[in-house]
Amino acid sequence: MKAGSTPDRLPRTCQVPSSHAKRDMTIPSSTERPVLDIEQLISGPPDAVFQAWLDPEQLKLWFCGSNTTMSCVEIDARVGGGYRIVMSDGDRDWSHTGIYQEIDPPRRLVFTWCTPSTNEQETLVTVTLKPEAGKTRLRLVHERLPAATFEGHRDGWIELIGKLNDLLG
Is pLDDT above 80 for 2? Predict the structure, then answer.
């Protein structure tokens, strides 16, 4: 844990496509709980990619949509620890919270994801990293999404992963 970057306790509960991203283009019906699966080759080694997911200062540089700003990042980077990310679109703040379920550097990160855009329902994100030709193959799987939020989350994750690639490239 980095000094000054994480609180002792965080809540326990709880958005321009890249040409390089492979995305699940199936639009689910309103009764399904779709699984979003995105894969992209990222510039940089797995260690650097993994660190970018857990370091608040790096997260501020890439983990925010083009029409939003980040006003708060709090991370308790341990299994059972939480995070809180607050983004603003100028009219309102969007709080993203969750709990780290698995932290296996530099291979795998699993965390819950709860936001107003998931109707405050807890969802699950798994990030898997594999070295490939001096770069990193990133696969993000987002499960338990409310069907109505699938497209917004797909577009958002693709944009953010593209920004991560630009940061590390």
Answer: no
